[in-house]
């Protein structure tokens, strides 16, 4: 379980990105983080794995307070947190297989990582993951030969080969077309269910979040404005999070999409 306790982040400019955020995410739950640009969504995700250092507060992964760890212990704990990026963060000149196996770099010794010689068990798991996401035949292709959706699937495999306890997903569909966006969100949620894996997904598309996740948290000005099930995102709630807009149209879109998926 992930637990955030009074998490604050103030940048040197004085901008307060997070304000006393308290949040618990149980094992197996997929949570969507929504809110306007600048609300603190990406900062929150990066404070969890300390890519951004919190100003104050605590981040517990299980019984471990990540904010109290030194650099060596933090590197070990980061192996338990898989990260999926908006811009994929693949090494373009490496093959799909090599990019997936890079998720094991925190587990192998220096020379094996330097020469990219991984145990056979890691290679077997990489093949299994690629097969699961429909990219087995792409294993030997270079990353720069792939489409956006294929690159994101490679990023998912790279995160999962860490065997994490938590997935941190930063705008996974921002660069994708609507059909591919639904496929990627569905894949992430299916994989989390198969592995009983918790996930926090920072996402701008409210309708897409409502279609797939179990729980939605809305941030506004660095504070939690809403925390509840997707069907509780009424026009009044969305106005509190984002401001005035015709939110009835968004809700109707979600209902229409749900009917199409069910059909």
TrEMBL record:
Xref: SMART domains: AAA
InterPro entries named among the record's database cross-references: AAA+_ATPase, ABC_transporter-like_ATP-bd, ABC_transporter-like_CS, ABC_transpr_PhnC, MetN_ABC_transporter-like, P-loop_NTPase
Matches recorded under Pfam families: ABC_tran (PF00005)
Keywords assigned: ATP-binding, Cell membrane, Membrane, Nucleotide-binding, Translocase, Transport
Single GO MF descriptor: ATP binding
Keyword Nucleotide-binding: yes
Keyword Cytoplasm: no
PANTHER family to which the protein is assigned, alphabetical: AMINO ACID IMPORT ATP-BINDING PROTEIN, PHOSPHONATES IMPORT ATP-BINDING PROTEIN PHNC
Name assigned to this protein: Phosphonate ABC transporter ATP-binding protein
Organism: Pseudohalocynthiibacter aestuariivivens
Gene: phnC
């Amino acid at each position: 379980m992930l637990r955030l306790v009074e998490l604050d982040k103030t940048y040197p400019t004085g901008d307060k990105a997070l304000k006393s955020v308290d949040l618990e995410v149980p094992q197996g739950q997929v949570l969507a983080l929504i809110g306007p640009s600048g609300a603190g969504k990406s900062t929150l995700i990066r404070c969890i794995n300390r890519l951004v250092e919190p100003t104050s507060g605590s981040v517990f992964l299980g019984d471990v307070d990540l904010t109290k760890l030194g650099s060596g212990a933090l590197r070990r704990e980061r192996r338990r947190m898989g990260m999926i990026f908006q811009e994929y963060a693949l090494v373009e000149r490496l093959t799909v297989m090599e990019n997936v196996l890079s998720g094991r770099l925190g587990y192998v010794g220096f020379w094996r990582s330097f020469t990219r010689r991984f145990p056979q068990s890691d290679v077997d798991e990489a093949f299994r993951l690629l097969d699961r996401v429909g990219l087995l035949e792409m294993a030997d292709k270079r990353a720069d030969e792939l489409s956006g959706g294929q690159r994101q699937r490679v990023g998912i495999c790279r995160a999962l080969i860490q065997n994490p306890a938590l997935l941190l997903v930063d705008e996974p569909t921002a660069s994708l077309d609507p059909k591919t966006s639904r496929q990627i969100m569905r894949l992430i949620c299916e994989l989390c269910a198969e592995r009983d894996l918790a996930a926090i997904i920072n996402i701008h598309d409210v309708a897409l979040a409502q279609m797939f996740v179990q729980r939605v948290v809305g941030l506004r000005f660095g504070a939690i404005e809403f925390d509840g099930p997707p069907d509780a995102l009424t026009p009044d709630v969305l106005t509190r999070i984002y401001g005035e807009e015709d939110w009835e149209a968004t809700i109707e879109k979600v209902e229409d999409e749900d009917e199409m998926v069910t059909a």
